[in-house]
């Protein structure tokens, strides 16, 4: 499991590498021109738009440059957006089991989902039991989107821990 300290160290290293790659004048920041050149070098489709957007969003002190902390913020936001997108896709894919569309998966819906996914009845029961043991955190015999999301965050270690 990745700790917050390790995650932030990795983020800092990635930030330093990005700045190092684009910083032409050695001030440990990326100016608008340096950002543009970096994105152009990386063959971004519209480096002007990307540069202007990043500066607008993450140049917190509005000095026309991105500092290490501002770049870390940008990378962290990008990571969170990607993680949340993946989480939503994961939850949505599992919630195909919600046959009555009430935003809850019952044990029987889970079992039926596994059967229609190719498991035999015995396997489907085992899979449904396992799913409910792992995911139904409030033991109400239903799995909600939030329970599934929280399970995925923990199981796949999406966000770093203490």
Explain this structure.
This protein has a two-stranded antiparallel ribbon. Helix 4 (about 70-95) crosses helix 7 and helix 5 crosses helix 6. The protein has helices at about 5-20, 30-40, 45-60, 70-95, 105-115, 120-135, 145-155; strands at about 30, 65, 105, 140-145. It is mainly alpha-helical.
What structural category do the secondary elements indicate? Answer: mainly alpha
- Name the quaternary structure: single chain
CATH superfamily of the largest domain: EF-hand
Secondary structure: number of strands: 4
Number of spatially distinct domains:
2
CATH class of the largest domain: Mainly Alpha
Whole-number radius of gyration?
A: 22 Å
Give the helix proportion (percent range): 55-70%
State the low-pLDDT regions, or none: none
- Beta fraction: 5-15%
Taken from the alpha-carbon principal axes, the silhouette is elongated
Mean pLDDT: 90
Number of helices: 7
Please give the order of strands in the largest beta sheet: 1-2
Enter the CATH topology name of the largest domain.
Recoverin, domain 1
Tell me about the largest β-sheet.
2 strands, antiparallel
List the secondary-structure elements in sequence, H or E.
HEHHEHEHHEH
CATH-defined architecture of the largest domain:
Orthogonal Bundle
Cα separation of the termini:
10 Å
């Amino acid at each position: 499991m990745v700790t917050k300290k390790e995650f932030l160290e990795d983020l800092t290293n990635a930030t330093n590498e990005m700045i190092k790659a684009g910083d032409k004048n050695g001030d440990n920041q990326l100016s608008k021109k340096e950002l543009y050149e970096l994105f152009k070098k990386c063959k971004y489709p519209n480096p002007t738009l990307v540069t202007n957007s990043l500066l607008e969003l993450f140049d917190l002190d509005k000095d026309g440059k991105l500092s290490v902390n501002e770049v870390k913020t940008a990378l962290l936001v990008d990571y969170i957006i990607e993680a949340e997108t993946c989480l939503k896709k994961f939850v949505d894919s599992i919630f195909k089991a919600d046959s009555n569309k009430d935003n809850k998966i019952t044990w029987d819906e889970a079992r039926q989902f596994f059967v229609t996914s190719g498991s035999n009845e015995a396997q489907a029961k085992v899979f449904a039991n396992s799913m409910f043991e792992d995911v139904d955190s409030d033991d109400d015999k239903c799995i909600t989107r939030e329970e599934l999301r929280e399970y995925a965050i923990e199981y796949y270690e999406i966000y770093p821990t203490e």
